[in-house]
Amino acid sequence: MRHRSHASWKTLASTLGLLVIFSGSGRSSDSSTQKRAETAPPDAASLTAQMRDDLRKALRLNSEAATQDEWSQSGYTPSDIFQNLKDLRRPEAWDSLCQALSTLPAEDLALFQDEIENPVHGEQLSCAPDLALKLKNHWEEAQLAFAQDQMLEQMGREFSAKDEEPILLPSMEKHIDAARGPVYSRGELKDGEIAFTFDDGPHPTRTQRIMEILRNSGIRATFFELGPSAREYSAISRQLVDAGHTVASHSVTHPELPKLPVERAEKEILNGRTMVAQACGVDVPFFRFPYGARNRTLTDFVKSRGMASFFWNMDTLDWKIRNPKTLFENILSELNREKGGIILFHDVHEQTVIVLPYLIEELKARNFSTVVFVPH
Ligand SMILES: [Zn+2]
Fold first, then answer.
1. How many A from CA of 226 to the centre of ligand 1?
2. Looking at residue 262, which CATH number applies to its domain?
């Protein structure tokens, strides 16, 4: 997740012994900081070592986080790390970050992909083109390896005549009367019925690839978009609507709403809805709480505005599982446990794009039907 910039750069800077150097020495009353101020500023090697530690910490916290919320609060998300670096205002620190990033295995590097490819870092991150190429190659290889793996799995299965025909999974529409402010976790779906939902987009490249995969199987899904992303990529939001998907909202800045003052939380909900509606041209009264974090006051508020709230009962964990095979196994175990309902994806991750066609094949093999939520 992005959208969150913690004050943790101060912690980082203090760890680096940099805070006093850049804020004018001696003003801090923190004795440990003063002590550090007496030592020489870290050289490039120790800066790189510190960056490497931070990257490792980010990877560890990501894999250990039980929820996406916990991860985003860790202070070590890729956007936190890049923001800290910008705040340091030391051009050479970018070279240190480049060196630290270049030592990561590609699958770990992938955690930082969106920041690496973010054009706002511009020329500061001089290694960006090389790292982007490394990631591109990594995903091609990962996709191929996963495809081969799945092919071997398939060989053990019997083939029937109907496998030669392309099978479609046209989604049944489930009409939702949002005026009553209903709350859904399983979406009242039966065993063998599944509703695809995608959060946090639209993404400049991945959302359209997901759209293409869904189109090939006739599947319609529900997308819960963030206001600013919808505004920035409004053409993609409109394409989703044109393709028959439902495009709903997921706040403006993706905060943990119960932690905000109520008025601000309410603005997040209402403004997010307005921004998404303006972007895609359709106002859908469906809302998904960021991280699923809600309280009574806010669920009552959503209800009072005639909006339906959607949660989920199957979590892909695609925000942290970057290996396609592991992600696919997790999805299958969710599916085996719940047997149907609402599945949560994020259309902003490469691994999600890679596994989606295989999940669809699996659902066809299991005779699943797909469901799309539409306003009444
Ligand atoms: Zn989200």
1. 8
2. 3.20.20.370
**3-state DSSP percent of the chain in helix, strand and coil, to 5:** 55, 10, 30
- With a cut of 50, say whether residue 129 has pLDDT above it: yes
What pLDDT digit, counting tens, does each position of 280-296 carry?
Answer: 999 999 999 999 999 99
Q: Flag whether pLDDT at 24 surpasses 50.
A: no
Q: Could you list the residue range(s) of the whole structural domain that residue 92 is in?
A: 8-137
pLDDT at 13 over 50: no
> Secondary structure of 76-100 in the HEC alphabet?
CCHHHHHHHHHHHCCHHHHHHHHHH
pLDDT tens sequence across 334-351: 999 999 999 999 999 999
Q: Please tell me the distance between residue 85's alpha carbon and the centre of ligand 1 in angstroms.
A: 25
Q: Which of 295, 287, 281, 291 is nearest to 178 (CA)?
A: 287
Residue 147 placed within a domain? no
CA distance 161 to 60: 47
- Average pLDDT value for residue range 209-219: 96
Q: Are residues 324 and 184 in the same domain?
A: yes
Residues 131 and 279 in one domain: no
Q: How far is the CA of 264 from the centre of ligand 1 (A)?
A: 18
Q: In the predicted model, is pLDDT for residue 32 greater than 80?
A: no
Domain annotation covers residue 159 = no
Ligand 1 mean position, distance from CA 290 (Å): 5
β-partners of residue 341 are 194
232 belongs to a structural domain: yes
CA distance 62 to 166: 38
181 and 86 part of one domain? no
67-98 pLDDT, tens digit each = 999 999 999 999 999 999 999 889 899 999 99
Give 29's pLDDT tier (boundaries 50, 70, 90): very low
* Distance of CA 367 from the midpoint of ligand 1 (Å): 29
Is the pLDDT at 180 greater than 50? The verdict is yes
Measured CA to CA, the distance from residue 164 to residue 127 in angstroms comes to 46
Number of domains in the chain: 2
Segments in 206-349 forming alpha helices (H) = 206-217, 227-232, 234-242, 262-280, 296-304, 324-338
Q: What is the spatial distance between Cα 30 and Cα 17, in angstroms, rounded to a whole number?
A: 12
Torsion angles phi and psi, residue 106, rounded to 5: -55, -40
Give the Å distance between the CA of 102 and the centre of ligand 1: 29
